[in-house]
């Protein structure tokens, strides 16, 4: 460890900064290893100067300090002090101009934080604390300043020089250099600062805002990739229009720029007027990108655009408030995607992500509330919880207030807090005052408590009285640091479905509280245990719980499995049709996993097989929806239902169920494949995407029959495919089914696509996710393949990250998988701590492993902790996992 014991930072210790910086002018003279930075800042006391400490403490990391001037006079060595991770200017005045000259080495910056090089492009990443790696600054989000930037660079190598805001000056300089100066008129925190320089291709378009202003839209990419920007540009224009229509928000600058880079730790970054994107979320054409990639581009473009209001115009006071901008912006991008595509399919996809990734986080060693109360390394808190659960919490507010009430609330939020750095309390305050002082007191537990609540539901029918009751008991398991949980206020969608499939009108027998207990089929749950009795129910209904997944919870009930079968076919809530199919399969497959462990021969439940067949044959279903509902629960989802995770038998059972269903319905599935596998002009319409999705799901099922004719079919699809969705699906299935064509397609795909790094990422993923003991050897071999580079996070995620999700191989009882990943974490941590700590998260199941695997993981965790110089990032994850 660098620090003997890394410091924990607490929300309760927040205090406003003693000093403010209202204006900053930056000059960069760019050079690969020796970039000169001059920063000129207007500093002033934030409070009564007499009460303040006279030392100004600035953050700074990996910087070389050259000179300091205060009001134009250079400081002597006794007037400042370099401290670990910063600089102290002693005895400052109430108001002064501070000028600092320093140098940085972008080429050596493999952490991809601050100013770095991605290939030949200079770019920045400053959220959350990257700016301190550019120059000395009070690097916290409540310091909001107006930024001007002069970028100087070699004109031939870096013809394009960008920063936030609008260009205000440019010209040639001596020695083949040139400069461009930028001014961003909006105050912003340092984490939204950006700079880019390169020899970039440009795609341009225009958007006219609701007040008639013309916005210059620009996407900058590596030359040669210009033709892959159409979808990103279309998505940007759609986002701009959508935010005007749904939230009344207009874009504010005259220019909106997006730059795509290959080396980026995350998806993208919302820097004011100059978004920097992982190229995977900009570049897409049918030949190289799958339908899911197109979908991802639209969502991330939307997400970053929506941040302009929810994040940039109104930002976070401190990093504990991260969900203020992220939960809200994810909610906004999810709704945007739902409006652009099929709403139910998008909602199911979002819930699948939440359940398979956030629920696991909430049940593991790093569980934290959406508003954490402490952290060691803030970069570890860009999590599924802050983002996805954060979005579900916003969605519940939307459900509680209704669309109009929610819009009144956001209008109020913008009215009260524009230009400020605020808290989640401020957001709730705006929502409340705009809605007759709606009482969010209990609802706020969602912000402070970690863990996924469990609802245990008991039902009873009183035939004589024609009354139906449900008793809901809520609980939430202890999470690290939180043993006791208070009950949550949650909206709970309910339907009581009659024999003929219609919903009974819901009439409560008694109303107990001042707040309404039911509105538009949404019950308000508030108590640890409560009973709701409905009248006028003339026969026993089948209840449909948590419709639309109105609250992010797990459910347990006394319903017979036949209810699930009924709801799969009859629920008026499409989401719950899907959910019932999943719940039934989870229930049955969980029993089969136990059978497998006990050596009991596997047998699949006949009513389930029948119900699955009904879905296959149901021609009224939309193809995308059908593909989702026919996709049996993933291993990860099945593991969640196990106290001790059984990787081998879970894999075995899933394979068995797929094979049984596929063999039973081979003819029907084959007919579906043939009907969808027709030559058609490629289209990105939801219908066309649905056809490809169902076709590929069906091909996967057919392959699991083991009949070799489907190996030939998959090979034929691979060879003939005219788009990446079909080509990649076939590649993956051929590799995963260990078909005789596997080596050939791996080779062919490589030769065809080796110059396209995004496609090579898919190639790595398909191989690292293959089952069987030879996979690890293959992954190790691929580390030295020409297309792999451990300093590019996308490649690490594709090869190493994918292997950690390959349950049977990563958790191989020999321990070789753990050993490999442990070595990778230690190695990558030296370059990129953020990447390494994400990989370290793959040990999250530690406490639920069988004892032999647990002992192996323990050794791995201890080996990492014993390493000299591990980063704070990895330390936090590994020590919490080990605890
Ligand atoms: N604010 C970005 C996410 C992001 C966070 C950190 C980064 O680098 C360490 C990069 C991007 C978003 O929500 O899109
Ligand atoms: Zn975001």
From TrEMBL:
Q: Does the keyword Flavoprotein apply?
A: no
**Ranges of residues in domain Peptidase M1 alanyl aminopeptidase Ig-like fold:** 451-557
Q: Does the keyword Hydrolase apply?
A: yes
Provide the E.C. number(s) assigned to this enzyme. 3.4.11.2
For this protein, the record's SUPFAM superfamilies field holds:
Leukotriene A4 hydrolase N-terminal domain, Metalloproteases ('zincins'), catalytic domain
Per the database record, which ranges form the Peptidase M1 alanyl aminopeptidase C-terminal domain? 563-882
State the superkingdom.
Bacteria
Q: What are the Aminopeptidase N-like N-terminal domain coordinates in residue numbering? A: 26-192
Q: Which GO terms describe its molecular function?
A: alanyl aminopeptidase activity; metallopeptidase activity; zinc ion binding
Keyword field: Aminopeptidase, Hydrolase, Metal-binding, Metalloprotease, Protease, Zinc
Annotated catalysed reactions: Release of an N-terminal amino acid, Xaa-|-Yaa- from a peptide, amide or arylamide. Xaa is preferably Ala, but may be most amino acids including Pro (slow action). When a terminal hydrophobic residue is followed by a prolyl residue, the two may be released as an intact Xaa-Pro dipeptide
Domain Peptidase M1 membrane alanine aminopeptidase positions: 232-441
Q: What Pfam families would the database entry show?
A: DUF3458 (PF11940), DUF3458_C (PF17432), Peptidase_M1 (PF01433), Peptidase_M1_N (PF17900)
The family assignment reads: Belongs to the peptidase M1 family.
Q: Which NCBIfam families match?
A: pepN_proteo
What is this protein for, i.e. what is its function?
Answer: Aminopeptidase N is involved in the degradation of intracellular peptides generated by protein breakdown during normal growth as well as in response to nutrient starvation.
The protein's name in its UniProt record: Aminopeptidase N
Gene this chain is encoded by = pepN
């Amino acid at each position: 460890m660098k620090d003997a014991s890394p410091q924990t930072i607490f929300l309760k210790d927040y205090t406003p900064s003693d000093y403010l910086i209202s204006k900053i002018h930056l000059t960069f003279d760019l050079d690969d290893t020796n970039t000169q930075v001059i920063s000129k800042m207007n500093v002033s006391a934030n409070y009564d100067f007499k009460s303040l400490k006279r030392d100004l403490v600035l953050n700074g990391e990996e910087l070389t300090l050259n000179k300091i001037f205060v009001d134009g006079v250079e400081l002597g060595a006794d007037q400042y002090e370099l401290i670990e991770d910063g600089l102290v200017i002693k005895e400052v005045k109430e108001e002064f101009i501070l000028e600092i000259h320093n140098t940085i080495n972008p080429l050596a910056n493999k952490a991809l934080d601050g100013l770095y090089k991605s290939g030949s492009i200079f770019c920045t990443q400053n959220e959350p604390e990257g700016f301190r790696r550019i120059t000395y600054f009070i690097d916290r989000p409540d310091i909001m300043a107006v930024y001007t930037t002069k970028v100087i660079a070699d004109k031939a190598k870096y013809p394009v020089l960008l920063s936030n805001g609008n260009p205000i000056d440019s010209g040639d300089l001596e020695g083949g250099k040139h400069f461009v100066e930028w001014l961003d008129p909006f105050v912003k925190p340092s984490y939204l600062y950006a700079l880019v320089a390169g020899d970039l291709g440009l795609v341009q378009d225009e958007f006219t805002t609701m007040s008639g202003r013309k916005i210059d839209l620009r996407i900058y990419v590596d030359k040669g990739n210009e033709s892959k920007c159409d979808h990103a540009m279309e998505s940007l224009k759609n986002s701009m229009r959508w935010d005007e229509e749904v939230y009344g928000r207009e874009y504010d600058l005259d220019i909106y720029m997006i730059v795509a880079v290959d080396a980026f730790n995350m998806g993208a970054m919302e820097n004011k007027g100059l978004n920097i994107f992982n190229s995977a979320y900009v570049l897409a054409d049918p030949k190289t990108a799958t339908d899911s990639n197109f979908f991802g581009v639209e969502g991330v473009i939307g997400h970053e655009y929506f941040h302009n209001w929810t994040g940039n115009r109104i930002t976070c006071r401190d990093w504990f408030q991260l969900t203020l901008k992220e939960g809200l912006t994810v909610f906004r991008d999810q709704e945007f995607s739902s409006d652009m595509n099929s709403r139910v399919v998008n909602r199911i996809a979002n819930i699948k992500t939440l359940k398979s990734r956030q629920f696991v986080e909430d049940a593991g060693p790093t569980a934290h509330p959406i508003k954490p109360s402490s952290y060691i390394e803030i970069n570890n808190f860009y999590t599924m919880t802050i983002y996805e659960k954060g979005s579900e919490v916003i969605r519940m507010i939307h459900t509680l207030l209704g669309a109009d009430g929610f819009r009144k609330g956001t209008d109020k939020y913008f009215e009260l807090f524009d230009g400020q750095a605020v808290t989640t309390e401020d957001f709730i305050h705006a929502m409340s005052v705009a809605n007759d002082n709606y009482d969010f007191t209990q609802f706020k537990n969602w912000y402070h408590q970690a863990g996924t609540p469990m609802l245990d539901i008991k039902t009873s029918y009183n035939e004589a009285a024609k009354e139906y009751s449900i008793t809901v008991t809520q609980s939430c398991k202890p999470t690290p640091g939180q043993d006791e949980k208070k009950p949550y206020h949650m909206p709970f969608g309910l339907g009581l479905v009659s024999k003929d499939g219609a919903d009974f009108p819901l009439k409560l027998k008694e109303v107990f509280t001042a707040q309404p207990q039911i509105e538009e089929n949404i019950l308000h749950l508030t108590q640890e245990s409560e009973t709701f009795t409905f009248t006028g129910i003339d026969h026993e209904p089948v209840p449909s719980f948590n419709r639309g997944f109105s609250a992010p919870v797990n459910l347990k009930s006394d319903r017979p499995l036949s209810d699930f079968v009924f709801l799969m076919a009859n629920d008026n809530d499409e989401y719950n049709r899907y959910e019932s199919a999943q719940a039934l399969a989870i229930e049955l497959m969980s029993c089969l996993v136990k059978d497998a462990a006990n050596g009991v021969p596997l047998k699949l439940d006949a009513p389930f097989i029948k119900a699955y067949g009904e879905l296959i044959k149901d021609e009224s279903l939309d193809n995308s929806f059908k593909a989702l509902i026919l996709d049996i629960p993933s291993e990860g989802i099945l593991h969640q239902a196990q106290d001790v995770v059984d990787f081998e038998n879970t894999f075995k059972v899933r394979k068995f169920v797929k094979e049984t269903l596929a063999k039973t319905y081979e003819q029907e599935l084959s007919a579906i494949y043939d009907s969808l596998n027709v030559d058609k002009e490629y289209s990105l319409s939801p219908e066309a995407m649905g056809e490809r999705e169902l076709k590929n799901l069906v091909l996967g099922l057919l392959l699991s029959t083991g009949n070799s004719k489907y190996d030939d079919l998959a090979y034929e699809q691979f060879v003939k495919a005219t788009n990446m969705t079909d080509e990649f699906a076939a590649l993956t299935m051929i590799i995963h089914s260990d078909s005789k064509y596997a080596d050939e397609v791996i080779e062919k795909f490589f030769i065809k696509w080796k110059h396209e790094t995004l496609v090579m990422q898919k190639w790595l993923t398909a191989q690292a996710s293959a089952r069987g003991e030879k996979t690890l050897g293959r992954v190790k071999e691929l580390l030295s393949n020409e297309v792999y580079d451990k300093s590019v996070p996308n490649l690490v995620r594709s090869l190493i990250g994918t292997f950690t999700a390959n349950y049977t191989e990563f958790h191989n009882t020999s321990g070789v998988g753990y050993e490999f990943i442990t070595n990778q974490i230690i190695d990558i941590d030296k370059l990129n701590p953020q990447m390494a700590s994400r990989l370290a998260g793959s040990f999250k199941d530690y406490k639920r492993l069988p004892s032999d695997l647990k002992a192996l993981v323990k050794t791995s965790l201890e080996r990492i902790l014993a390493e000299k110089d591990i980063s704070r990032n990895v330390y936090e994850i590994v020590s919490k996992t080990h605890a």
